[in-house]
Amino acid sequence: MIDFNIPPYTGTEEKYIQEAIKSRKLCGDGRFTKQCSQWMQEHLDVCHALLTTSCTHALEMAAVLTGVGEGDEVIMPSYTFVSTANAFVQRGARIVFTDIRPDNMDLDERLLEEAITERTRVIVPVHYAGIACDMDAILDLARRYDLQVVEDAAQGLTARYKGRALGTIGDYGCLSFHETKNLTMGEGGALLFQQEEALERAEIVREKGTDRSKFFRGQIDKYTWVDYGSSYLPSELNAAYLWGQFMECDRIQQDRMQTWEFYHQAFADLEQSGCLKRPVIPSYAEHNAHMYYIKVADLKTRTRLLSYLKERGIMAVFHYVPLHSSRAGQKFGRFFGEDRYTTRESERLIRLPLYYNMRPEDRERVAEAVWDFFR
Ligand SMILES: *Cc1c(COP(=O)(O)O)cnc(C)c1O
């Protein structure tokens, strides 16, 4: 059987986990957490990178930091993971879902201006498949209407927009290190931001509403409850695993890219003959081979192709059910304008197996099976 995903493992993780155990510090913000933060700051060129327990939690932190509340509106694509919306729903905000672009499945920046009302506070671009949204257009709107931008870069580690790392371009960026992402720590994530002013509040939100980070730096002599917060710092054991992954980041990325390129080449002719569509990478974007998807004619074809692959032991999967069509989506938000592409394109999409160290013969089998289906 060919799995859809196998969590990346490089072989150095155990050594670092053992070091964490021997250091007798297992709770958060020890040596490995610090090293991971520094790695992100250097490699992504961002002033602050706080390691979190998940991207869901990084999004929750970002939502708190934006200050959105009851009656405010937050614009995001309907084609995203539930956490993107939940984080803002938790603050009492209403979600305004907008349509996506059919070429790269990212939110359509051309529809955003019309969706803005006097209650709009935040825009949340989701960089689907690690392919950047058109950030210049989004930042320009944000400036003109005085809105904040929170990037859901859960899938975007090391991917870039005009040379800048995803997650470092808006006011806040959220990464995921879930086992299904390019690099992992089991469950985990990070909150990225450039503004110095946001750091103190962010540390407080992450540390149960206390000024404990300042205390540990010796800036104050006791710590207390100063504002609303929760517990968003991961254990050192998880950070140690991630450190092993960061050390091998280039190798993991090169390997994923090879599989991505292999699929992309393999399906060029099928696209030519109109059987499927391949992902489109805009010229401003450097993607990170987070995902390889194809889009077939319609839902019926997709269902048939998925079961065809499954019969051959290949675990391909579909992706998001548009949030505006879900029960919670209807309760907490509304779709703005016409759903031209969100439903239609999401029903056509299939994600193929892609993971670190995928054997060449396995990806060949996947491509062959897709070819056979269309034959
Ligand atoms: C994976 C993912 C998340 C959630 O990440 P967790 O770390 O599992 O909380 C959020 N948004 C998007 C777009 C994702 O792909």
What key phrases describe this protein's structure?
375 residues, alpha/beta, Aspartate Aminotransferase, domain 2, Aspartate Aminotransferase, domain 1, 2 domains, eight-stranded mixed sheet, three-stranded antiparallel sheet, 40% helix, globular, binds pyridoxal-5'-phosphate
Walk me through this protein's architecture:
The protein folds into 2 domains: 235 residues, Aspartate Aminotransferase, domain 2 (3-Layer(aba) Sandwich), CATH 3.40.640.10; 126 residues, Alpha-Beta Complex (Aspartate Aminotransferase, domain 1). The two termini are 22 Å apart. 40% of the residues lie in helices and 14% in strands. The strands form 3 sheets. The protein has an 8-stranded mixed beta sheet, sandwiched between helices. Strands 7-6-10 form a 3-stranded antiparallel beta sheet, with no helix packed on it. It is of the alpha/beta class. The site of pyridoxal-5'-phosphate (PLP) has 14 residues, from helix 3 and helix 4.
